[in-house]
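Response to reviewer comment R2.3. The reviewers asked that we include at least one raw input/output pair. We reproduce the pair for Holliday junction resolvase RuvC here without editing.
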Amino acid sequence: MDVSPMVITLYPNAFGMGYVISETPKELINYGVARVRPLSKSHYVKRLLYYIKQYRPTIIILRGYRDTDNRISKRVINIIQTFELEAEKQNLLIFKYSREDIKQVFKQFGGNSKYAISKTISSWYPELQSRMPDIRKNTKAEHYQMGVFDAFALMLTHYYIEN
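Raw output as returned:
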């Protein structure tokens, strides 16, 4: 019997982090946006260790941050680096994908903007439609629920590239 590995996908952002815990893209265990307060490395690590203890993953998927389309804060880069170190201590396989990787995968499904990617994801996962934010105007901050779509996009990029 072939058992799928447990996977944790984490996408830190200004609110905390979007996450998806899955065995495959069709076998979702849990997902959402975890508010992390205060926004300190130790609180993020506590959340990661909770997920590791609760779900016993073998793979962690993180946002890559070394590409040319890098609009990621130093704070978030530090969080991702801390996740990498903690995942290495736990002997987890680590996969990282940049925004450019995500855009390349989703381009073939109708668009590579964050909004277009979110629309595609919500069409594949109807349970996410109630979380779908309106298109963002330049004067508005990103919607809180966008973190879950970012995490889903990262998880789906992994499965698309690796399989």
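The chain is about 40% helix and 20% strand. The two ends are 19 Å apart (CA to CA). Further pairs are available on request from the corresponding author.
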